[in-house]
Amino acid sequence: MKIHNLNFRHLRYFMVVAQEGSIARASDRLNLTPQTISGQLKTLEDMLDIELFERSGRRLELTDAGRQALEYAEEIFSLGEAMQLQLHHADTVQRTCAVGIADVVPKSIAYRLLAPALELDEPLRLECREGSMEALLGELIANRVDLILADRPIDAGTHVRAYNHLLGETGISMFASPSLASRYRKDFPGGLDGAPLLLPTDDTVAGANIMKWFRARQITPLVQVECVDSALIDTFGQAGIGLFCGPSVLEAELQRQHGVELIGRLEGIRERYYAISLERQIRHPGVQAITHRARELLSVDS
């Protein structure tokens, strides 16, 4: 197939037929004869060398390849509409900065990194999407986000051509409600054996590192809660359910925000944060502001 033979008309007719479920209804919607639409669909299938529909009674059902093609078609027309809107209203439309935030990244860190994007001279609308690393990589590939904030780089074996930008690192500190803090601060860390602990799941970098730290000291805490969402862990910690960890660089902020107290620092653990983008050199002004702020906030000494 020669890609230049594929045009918007083919994709438009295909998309409408897929949405309507029949050529007859699609012809009413497009104000074209069924023969015209049928001919264009046949041309498209011949060019792609694949069947996009199969008949189910009076309806046309998408094949697996057809469903995949529909996703691409909808994305193409969505991007086309966005392009027209941007070009026709370039002077009035706010620039958008879409950021994917891995759900293990502490919300306090995310906020501090994202805030500078809203302080630019050029008006900017910040869009934040939270999810797993895998889901966010899909968003990045589809150009739905400009950047991912994560606590780990993408693996070299991942079939995604993206770039890791190390933003910085910080130590990890342990916090608890005042009553728990007074009990466990006295003999930290030796007195943590059997202490109630709130922990990121062990398939996260933070969760694995914290448990490795405990095992190296032959300490066995009582894990009360395991979850990926850092905000939920903070909430459980504020309620006095158990001890929890957070970035050392934000010790004062976490104590003030959640009414908790510092127990101690987990010496030897460093938590790193990364920006992941499709660009080797970041050009988006909002993303530049975020990465610049990150390198001010996160340092090897924090």
Automatic annotation (TrEMBL):
Domain HTH lysR-type per the UniProt entry, residue ranges: 6-63
Coiled-coil positions: none
One of the Pfam families matching this protein, by short name: HTH_1
Lineage: superkingdom: Bacteria
Listed InterPro entries: LysR_HTH_N, LysR_subst-bd, WH-like_DNA-bd_sf, WH_DNA-bd_sf
Entry keyword set: Activator, DNA-binding, Transcription, Transcription regulation
Entry similarity comment: Belongs to the LysR transcriptional regulatory family.
The protein's name in its UniProt record: Transcriptional activator NhaR
Organism of provenance: Marinobacterium zhoushanense
